[in-house]
Amino acid sequence: MNEGVVEMTELMYMSAPDQIEIEANVLSVEAGADGVALILDRTPFYPQGGGQPSDVGTIDGDGFTFTVRKAVLVDGVVHHQGVAVEGEPAPGVARVSIDAESRARHAALHSGGHLIMTAMFELTGLRAVKGYHFPDGPYVEFDGTLDEETKAGMVEVLQRRLDEMVAADEEVLVESTTVGELVAEGVFMPTGVPADKPTRVVTTCGYRSPCGGTHVTRTGELAGLRVRRVKSKSGRTRVAYEFAGE
Questions:
Q1: 140 with 238: CB under 8 angstroms?
Q2: How far apart are CA 176 and CA 171, in angstroms?
Q3: How far apart are the C-alpha atoms of 95 and 64, rounded to whole Å?
Q4: How far is residue 246's CA from residue 244's CA, in Å, rounded to a whole number?
Q5: Which of 38, 51, 65, 84 could cross-link to 80 by cystine, CB 3.0-4.6 Å?
Q6: In what helix (H) or strand (E) does residue 105 lie, and over which residues does it extend?
Q7: What is the pLDDT of residues 154-207, one digit of tens each?
Q8: At residue 25, does pLDDT exceed 60?
Q9: CA-to-CA distance for 209 and 193, rounded, in angstroms?
Q10: Average pLDDT over residues 199-219
Q11: What is the phi-psi region of residue 50: left when phi exceeds 0, alpha when psi lies from -120 to 50, beta otherwise?
């Protein structure tokens, strides 16, 4: 079932995030510990990573329909893991589609996390060190703690600032640059960002952060972003949030 080898999958969401359906070539069908995976030359699927879940969707080829339950990136190649619901997957031209509703929700949750990062840095000076943007309990974790007085009122203060940024309806800017340029600008760089490759950076209300995920286009799309709680202990502060949408 293996007919082609790809050194790196072309990630369509990087250059065309609104493209939810494309034509691609199925290069190989692989069986592994996690079941069957299809390898394509290019894909609109976002592979799980950076605190964001992968896209889900379908791959329709000649005589088969394959449901993608998870996409993962391994050494530059995206493995579309799932199950055949009709026929047997085989190499060849296929129609590749992601679930638009799921993508939109994941993008909103991820952008919501960045808006919280922005507001927390403005209000406290704390930098984000971890983000979990999955629907089942998203949060952003920051390096440093808050004193009891500040923590007591932080949910209200943070919510007020988030509401202001949403109402401002500013563009969420996604661009590519280099680590050197970001360091020169004084942008905080998480560990593990490759210094020898172009770096994708997301700007929310002036706050810039390296990020490879998917995002909304304007802060106004985040109406319904709510702070659930703020916890501060053991050298870290965690902000739990939710996005109901409006």
A1: yes
A2: 16
A3: 11
A4: 7
A5: 38
A6: helix 100-124
A7: 999 999 999 999 999 999 999 887 777 777 776 766 666 555 556 788 999 999
A8: yes
A9: 11
A10: 91
A11: left
Tokens of 237: 């502060």
CA dist 148 and 141 (Å) reads: 17
Where is pLDDT greater, at 7 or 216? 216
By the 8 A CB rule, do 59 and 29 touch? Answer: no
d(CA 30, CA 6): 13
Return the H-helix or E-strand segment holding 82: strand 77-86
Would you say 177 and 187 are in contact if contact means Cβ atoms under 8 Å apart?
no
**Averaged pLDDT of the chain:** 90
Residues whose CB is less than 8 angstroms from the CB of residue 32 and which lie 6 or more positions away in sequence, other chains included:
none
Token pair in block for residue 54: 């992968």
CA–CA separation, 36 and 82 (whole Å) = 6
Does residue 127 contact residue 188 with C-beta atoms inside 8 Å? yes
Angle between helices 100-124 and 148-168 (to 10 degrees): 130
CA distance 153 to 161: 13
Please state, as a whole number, how many other Cβ atoms lie within 10 Å of the Cβ of residue 82.
22
Strand pairing category for 173-177 and 199-204: antiparallel
> Dihedral sign, CA of 15, 196, 194, 145?
negative
**Contact by Cβ (8 Å): 150, 124:** yes
Burial 36-59 (b: 16+ CB within 10 A, else e): bbbbbebbbbbbbeebbbbbbbbb
